[in-house]
Amino acid sequence: VQDMFYRHPSAIPLSEIDPVFGPLVPLCRELGIPTKGFADIFFINANGLPTLVECKLWRNPEARRKVLAQILDYASILQSWDYSKLQAAVRSARKEPDFDIVGHMRKNGHPDIDEPAFIAAIDRNLAAGRMLLLIIGDGIRSGMGALAEYLQSMTGTQFTLALVEAPVYALDNDRKIIQPRILAKTQIIQRVVVELTTATIRTDDGSRDDAVGEDELPADAGWRSAFWAELLSSLRFDDPEQMPARATGNKTIVFPLQSKTGMGITC
User: Fold this and answer.
1) Helical axes 83-94 vs 115-128, angle rounded to 10°
2) C-beta of residue 244 within 8 angstroms of C-beta of residue 134
3) What is the pLDDT of residue 210?
4) CA 11, CA 91: separation in Å to the nearest integer?
5) Average pLDDT rounded to a whole number, residues 150-154
6) Omega of the bond prior to 34 within 30 degrees of 0, cis?
7) Which are the contacts of 96, defined by CB distance < 8 A and separation ≥ 6?
């Protein structure tokens, strides 16, 4: 699977994830990430946007949780890199001491690339964590509780993460069919603006908060409590470890996440 996607990056359903990261140009396999390991595949595009890919065969839920932590660790390390450090790592992975990323891009569909602008874009994107993280497996069943917990520790980045299932079907004459499909991808749920003034701090999430405190329950609180209770009685989670919410008379309920941050998903 790793070899196929490296040789044929167009097989990755990028249009369903985020087309801004394409077209993908393969740079190397087994990119060394100090103290963390080796990233399976590393792509770049003409706008200097990196794509990091981990290909895994799935055996148990623990393997899924580990690969999520692993690829996010890779992303955090890459944020401290610049173009020169990336080029050195790619040269080492390819075992080509004279390999040049810009020259490689010019040979792979981008002959007119502006070298200074391209290098500056890579520096900016790495520093901001602006990258695509892909986890590709033969039979992914996403554990969204674990995913949420890991994402909470990475709130300072701008990465996009997607889970891609790529089952392999054997045909005759040693031929195979690989069918990539998207299972999950991250989305921006809330954008918070913090405004610093001389004496106060004001936060604004860009939306109106309809939630009220327990001591300010509206007149139809009984109806709302019954609504939530009925919903929760029939709700089933993919992750059996997910804790249920508590029915209240408010317009919202909160599903607590298994995280030390105390955060939750508001419904």
Assistant:
1) 90
2) no
3) 41
4) 25
5) 55
6) no
7) none
Asked if 65 and 143 count as a contact pair (C-beta separation under 8 A), the reply is yes
Per-chain mean pLDDT for the chain: 79
Count helices and strands (H / E) in the chain. 8, 12
Q: How far apart are CA 83 and CA 91, in angstroms?
A: 12
**From the CB of residue 205, how many other CB atoms can be counted at a distance below 10 Å?**
10
Q: Which two tokens stand for residue 15?
A: 């249009």
**Cβ contacts of residue 209 below 8 Å, gap of 6+?**
none
| pLDDT tens digit sequence for 157-203 | 578 888 888 888 888 888 888 888 877 665 544 444 555 555 555 55
- Of residues 254 and 29, more confidence is placed in 29
Q: Which two tokens stand for residue 4?
A: 């196929």
User: Would you call 167 helix, strand, or coil by DSSP?
Assistant: coil
Q: What is the pLDDT of residues 219-251, one digit of tens each?
A: 677 888 888 888 888 888 887 777 888 888 888
pTM for the predicted model, two decimal places:
0.65
Rounded distance between C-alpha atoms, residue 228 and residue 37, angstroms = 45
Q: How far apart are CA 27 and CA 44, in angstroms?
A: 7
> Nearest to residue 161, comparing CAs of 184, 193, 180?
184
CA distances to 131, 155, 191, 250, 263 from 205, rounded to whole Å, are: 24, 15, 6, 20, 16
Whose CA is closest to 251, among 235, 267, 262, 264? 267
- Compute CA 60 distance to the chain's CA centroid, rounded to the nearest angstrom: 20
Name which of 196, 80, 79, 206 is nearest 133 in CA terms.
79
Q: At 62, list the tokens.
A: 């623990």
| CA 211 – CA 206 distance, rounded (Å) | 15
Q: What is the pairing mode between strands 25-33 and 37-44?
A: antiparallel
